[in-house]
């Protein structure tokens, strides 16, 4: 198999099989729910996940915007070809899996038909020491992305302001992002970087708390407050509105307090790829 073939298979894995951490979280949510309508929604979600896995078909009709997070070892000889490989793999995956074409020109409203276009697929690059390349395949659905938001808080509002912004915004979103959701929150940096941190926070496994105890405590507090809203699965009421909350942070300018919020739906799709210097490839979830 060529490198491009492996990327196609990683995309297939991401859109047809949900990672175990998310499946287990959904099962726990089903056990906790008492509202029969909420339980029915979760039951349908779990059945959909099984069908996708059994038949190797996308678990959701919105197969998302393909996003790749790349940690690139600067000594890996495959780095120079990687961008072209990711773009070509996206085109092939659209036809072969298949994926819904989700790349629309903002000027003409024409769909490219193959999930590629200007700056799409989205590729985040980080150069690191060494000779390994790690890629996280992250298809991001449009419905949940529409509930993402940025707040430029007054620094005096602090972390209480962060909590207020997140809870009030999720309350307004209601069932639009197909809950139960996972919330990625980025605090600090600049406006653009806060949103990037928020999306990157979603890559962490569900249930894994931040290594900074203060941030870990804030994640738990927000998870409890969001679930207390009672929005529930698919917005039809219930105990579980969010499966988890993930926060990442950076130092900020003294005059600014940016908070980025990226909402992920229950279809928390991802796959991981590692490419060694000699061309060996490992794919996992």
TrEMBL record:
Instruction: Specify the Fe-S hydro-lyase tartrate dehydratase alpha-type catalytic domain's residue ranges.
Output: 6-273
Q: What are this entry's molecular-function GO terms?
A: 4 iron, 4 sulfur cluster binding; lyase activity; metal ion binding
InterPro entries recorded:
Class-I_Fumarase/Tartrate_DH, Fe-S_hydro-lyase_TtdA-typ_cat
4Fe-4S as UniProt keyword:
yes
Q: Which UniProt keywords apply?
A: 4Fe-4S, Iron, Iron-sulfur, Lyase, Metal-binding
Tree of life domain: Archaea
Q: Which Pfam families match?
A: Fumerase (PF05681)
Q: Which family does it belong to?
A: Belongs to the class-I fumarase family.
Q: What is this protein called?
A: Fumarate hydratase
């Amino acid at each position: 198999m060529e490198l491009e073939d492996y990327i196609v298979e990683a995309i297939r894995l991401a859109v047809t099989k949900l990672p175990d951490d998310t499946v287990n979280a959904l099962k726990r949510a089903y056990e906790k729910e008492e509202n029969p309508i909420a339980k029915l929604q979760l039951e349908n979600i779990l059945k959909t996940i099984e069908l996708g896995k059994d038949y190797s078909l996308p678990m959701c009709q919105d197969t998302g915007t393909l996003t790749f997070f790349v940690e690139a070892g600067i000594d890996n000889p495959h780095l120079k070809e990687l961008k072209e490989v990711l773009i070509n793999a996206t085109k092939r995956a659209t036809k072969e899996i298949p994926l819904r074409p989700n790349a629309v020109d903002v000027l003409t409203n024409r769909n490219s038909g193959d999930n590629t276009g200007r700056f799409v697929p989205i590729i985040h690059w980080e150069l690191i020491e060494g000779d390994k390349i790690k890629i996280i395949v992250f298809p991001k659905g449009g419905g949940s992305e529409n509930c993402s938001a940025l707040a430029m808080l007054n620094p005096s509002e602090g972390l209480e302001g962060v909590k207020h912004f997140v809870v009030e915004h999720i309350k307004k979103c209601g069932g639009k992002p197909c809950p139960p959701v996972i919330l990625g929150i980025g605090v600090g940096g600049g406006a653009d970087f806060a949103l990037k941190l928020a999306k990157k926070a979603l890559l962490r496994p569900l249930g894994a708390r931040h290594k900074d105890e203060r941030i870990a405590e804030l994640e738990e507090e927000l998870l409890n407050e969001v679930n207390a809203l009672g929005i529930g699965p698919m917005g039809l009421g219930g105990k579980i509105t969010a499966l988890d909350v993930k926060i990442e942070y950076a130092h900020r300018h003294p005059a600014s307090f940016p908070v980025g919020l990226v909402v992920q739906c229950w279809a928390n799709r991802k796959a991981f790829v590692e490419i060694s210097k000699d061309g060996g490839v490992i794919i996992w979830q």
